Amino acid sequence: MVELRFLGSMSTPGVSAKKKTVTAATMTDAVKIFARHDHRYPTGWKLRKDGPYLPVEIIFNILLYVPAKVLHEVARYVCKQWYDIVSDPDFITTHCRMSSSNSFLIQHSDQLHKASHIEPHILMGTLVLHETPVEIPFCGAVVCCFNGLLVLLSGLRNADEEIKYDVFYVVNPVTKVIISLPHLTDSRHVTEVINLAVDSSGHYKVVHVSGKTAYFEQVKMRVFTIGVDKAWRFIDLRGIPAIAGERNLMLFHSFCFGGFMYWFTYYTSYDISPFGFALEVDTEIIYPLSIPKDVIKTQCPISINMGTCPGLVTEQDDIWRVWKLTDVKSSEWTELTRINMRRVYSQINNKLGPIYFLDIRPFRLFNGHLWLRCLRGGDNYVVVHYDLTRERFKDFRIKKLFNHALHPYANTLVSPKN
C-alpha cells in the first residue's frame, strides 16, 4: 500500500508556514503534482511503501462505523489487513452490536420476492424515514429477523397462483449466505411461530412453535441448532401453563434478548395468567411469565420490543404505563415511564386528519423513540415513529403488510456456524 505522509514544513502555495495547516486544497495540489510523469511531490512529503501508517486498532474502530454492505462489497478488498479485520469474528460481533438501532424490516404480502429496510434519521432537525430495498435471494416470506439474519419460508406457486410454502432458510441478505433447514412434514396449514437466537458458544438456534388451531390448543415446540443438529429436536412442554391453555401467540410478539427467547400472548381476555413464556437458549428451559402485580385485570397488557429486553404497555386513564422485564426466572417487572396517550393521539389526529383506525398499538420503545402500528383495515397500516423527547413524529403508510409484522432489523456481516 502506498501512502503520502506529511513529515515537515510545506512549501506548497496556500499553506501558512507558521501554522503548518494542511488544507483540502493543499492535499489536492499534492496529489496532482505526484500524478505527473516525473512523480514530483511538494517539499515536506515523502512517499512511503513500508506498510500502513495508522495502527490496526484505529483502523478497526473506524471500520466499525462503515455500513455492512460497504464492508462486504468494497472495504475488505482494499488490502489484506482490511480483509483480515472485516473477517475477524470479534469485529463482526462488535459491528453487529453497534448496528442495532430503531430500524426495522417490512414485507408486502404481494411482493414476497423483496423487502424494505426502514431507518429513522434526524436531518436538519427534521425526522426523516429512509427506506432501502433488501435483496432476498428467492420468493420467500420473512418470518423472523435476528442479528441481520432472516428466517425465510420459501414460497412456491401452484396452478391457481396460490403460494404454497415448503422449506425454511436462514439468510443474510448482505453476505448472501443461505442455509436450508430440515423439512417439517407436519407443520403445513397450522399456526406457526419462528424465532432465532444465538447461544453462548456462538451457535444459532431456530425454534419452531406450531399448533393445530389458531389458539394453540395442541402445541409442539422444536429446536434446530445450525451446524450441530441433523434434525429438529422436540422440547418437552408438559407442565407449562403458558402453552397449555388457549393462548394466541402472534408472530410479531416474539423477541430475543440476553440469551432468552420470548413469546407473549395476544390478549383475548382481561384475565391473562401467565402472560407469556421465555426459553433460555443455552439450557432450553422454559419459564412462564406473569404480568406485573400492580396491573389490574381491567388493563389489557400489550407486549413491546424495548431494544435490549421485552416490555409491556398497560392503559389506565389515558396513560400508557410502560414496564420493563428485569428478572426472567422470577417474572419481575419494573415500571419504566408513563406516556400521555391523549397528547400523542391529538398530535396524530391533527397531522393525519380524521382517519379512522381500527386499532392503535405501540410495538417498540427504544432510546425515547416510540413506534405505533395503526390498523386502518385489512392489512393496511399507518406506522408512526414518535420522538418522546422532541414530541415530534413521522408517519408512513404500508399497504398489504405481510403477516402484520414489522421486524427489528439491521444489516450485518453475521454468518451462522454451519
Automatic annotation (TrEMBL):
<dbReference type="InterPro" id="IPR050796">
    <property type="entry name" value="SCF_F-box_component"/>
</dbReference>
<dbReference type="Pfam" id="PF08268">
    <property type="entry name" value="FBA_3"/>
</dbReference>
<dbReference type="InterPro" id="IPR001810">
    <property type="entry name" value="F-box_dom"/>
</dbReference>
<dbReference type="InterPro" id="IPR017451">
    <property type="entry name" value="F-box-assoc_interact_dom"/>
</dbReference>
<dbReference type="InterPro" id="IPR013187">
    <property type="entry name" value="F-box-assoc_dom_typ3"/>
</dbReference>
<feature type="domain" description="F-box">
    <location>
        <begin position="54"/>
        <end position="95"/>
    </location>
</feature>
<dbReference type="InterPro" id="IPR036047">
    <property type="entry name" value="F-box-like_dom_sf"/>
</dbReference>
<protein>
    <recommendedName>
        <fullName>F-box domain-containing protein</fullName>
    </recommendedName>
</protein>
<dbReference type="Pfam" id="PF12937">
    <property type="entry name" value="F-box-like"/>
</dbReference>
